[in-house]
Design brief:
By secondary structure, the chain is an all-alpha fold. Helices cover about 70% and strands about 0% of the residues. The radius of gyration is 15 Å and the shape is globular. The N and C termini lie far apart (about 30 Å).
Amino acid sequence: EQLTAFSSEDFQSKIRSLQQASTSSPQDDGFQLQGRAEVALEVQKEILPRYGFEGSRPGVHAMLSEAAKYLGSLEVSQLLDSINAKLGMKPSACARFRERLRLRMAPSAAASPAASA
């Protein structure tokens, strides 16, 4: 659902505006795009509650924590990359995002009671 919403012309126009306003070099891969989180949250605050997450930054982090558990799945990784591409990330940034998500979530997954069950 996020992929569809982020694919809309209105949303893509907002991403292009952020990219044009960015002070990053043309070689930048879009990993850090100022204002993207706020623009994305406008969409996510409507979608996330339908899936049991808060429509807030903590809700986005909770959703990403859940998604991180399935990064080993090609389908999940490809969907995450497709969403991030709509958020203005080039393939190198998508790969870096997945790796950081994997690393950030690994310790909490190991410490989780469900992991030891």
